[in-house]
Amino acid sequence: MKNKREGKVIFSPYERGDAVKKVVAISREDVLFELRESILKGRGGAGFPTATKWTLVSAAISDEKFVVCNADEGEPGTFKDRILLLEYPELIFDGMVVAGYTIGAKKGIVYLRGEYEYMLKSLEDYLGEMRKDNLLGENICGKIGFNFDITIRLGSGAYVCGEETALIESLEGNRGEARNRPPYPVNTGYLGKPTTVNNVETFAAVSHIITKGGSWFAKFGTDKSTGAKLFSVSGDCEKPGVYELPWGTTINELLEIVGAKNTKAVQVGGASGICIPKSQFNRKLGYEDAATGGSIIIFNESRNMLHILKNFMEFFVEESCGQCTPCRIGNVKLLEGIEMIENNNYTFSYLNHLKELGKTMQVASKCGLGQSSPNAFLSILENFKDEIFNNGGNNGK
Ligand SMILES: Cc1cc2nc3c(=O)[nH]c(=O)nc-3n(C[C@H](O)[C@H](O)[C@H](O)COP(=O)(O)O)c2cc1C
């Protein structure tokens, strides 16, 4: 990748097998201790503490457990997992082996985004090399009874299949639709067995944490958002690319680093995230403020915010799985509202109803897709109302 900023955590020195060799010499409890010390939160977007997830799967009683790597990377504007998969597979696969050891699983599955099929052969070749080095297979690194292997399965392009329960349905050969929760995958996951589903970058972070220590990791970032994060930066800037930055970096600082000029808005967290206006560029990237799975899309003064919003809502109408009413109908209604504004055929009272609908979707939708799809609608209409309603519009009837 042309622009890749290597920071001190994710891109710090690492050799294939480092974490695996270390982990077989310590106990599961020791691994969980390091994870707790690290305060690592899942990098897939929701920010669930990894130590808690693995503790739950580890404690679940079952004859079989699974480790699933979520490499679906479907959020618009996200491409950081692609770089890890292409250039740092050792970090991901070793992290999966560590997970297998910790939770007591024998099988790991990578759910690879369908569009990343071109990587499949090289990733499988890589797994073959790991088997030769006894980093996968039986009695891994001489640890009697520690058997673990990884297979790769391809997705077919549905955004919702990045949601962990829809992903599991898809892995089982079913239509990709979210499951009711509870039960949670930590108890009832793939094939009804306890399963940890983690993002690509989460596994990469684990490899470093096991090698360098949880407290080392926790030194970076902020109290509530430890470590560093990979950001996929796209849009109106001189140097789009993948950037490793400590959590707590402000949006202003990020814009400076990537050479963004005349920035009007920054979409943090992809289409399902929030749109931040210039007046809030001092906000910090992190779970305590502007949380994100890593997608940063930059818009300069030349952009029309209503067009951007329409583009996002068209995406959600297309990608809603249709299973629950708030998401299936709600996204269509929000898109219709945008078209009414475009056509100068709206009333503020109806738009207020749509805002209420958006808030209802956030709580009533069955999965994170419909819960987060109104975010852009609500934040763009609120933060860019002057542009949207005063530029040639009829200001509502
Ligand atoms: C619609 C939707 C799409 C998602 N897509 C992804 C994805 O592509 N990759 C990912 O890691 N997590 C994705 N997630 C989040 C996952 O459901 C889950 O939280 C994550 O894989 C857990 O891993 P982590 O704890 O390591 O973050 C998505 C969630 C939703 C609601």
Description of the structure:
The chain is α/β, with parallel strands linked by helices. About 40% of the residues lie in helices and about 15% in strands. It has helices spanning about 20-25, 30-40, 50-60, 80-85, 90-105, 120-130, 165-170, 200-210, 215-220, 250-255, 305-320, 325-340, 350-365, 370, 375-385, 385-390, and strands at about 5, 65-70, 105-110, 150-155, 195-200, 230-235, 240-245, 265-270, 275, 295-300. The strands form 2 sheets. The chain has a 6-stranded mixed β-sheet with strand order 1-7-6-10-8-9. Helix 2 (about 30-40) runs antiparallel to helix 3. The longest helix is centred in the C-terminal third of the chain and has 18 residues, at about 325-340. It is globular, with a radius of gyration of 22 Å. The model is unreliable at about 390-395 (pLDDT under 50). The structure holds flavin mononucleotide (FMN).
Quick tags:
397 residues, alpha/beta, Rossmann fold, Ubiquitin-like (UB roll), de novo design (two linked rop proteins), 6-stranded mixed beta sheet, 4-stranded parallel beta sheet, globular, disordered C terminus, binds flavin mononucleotide
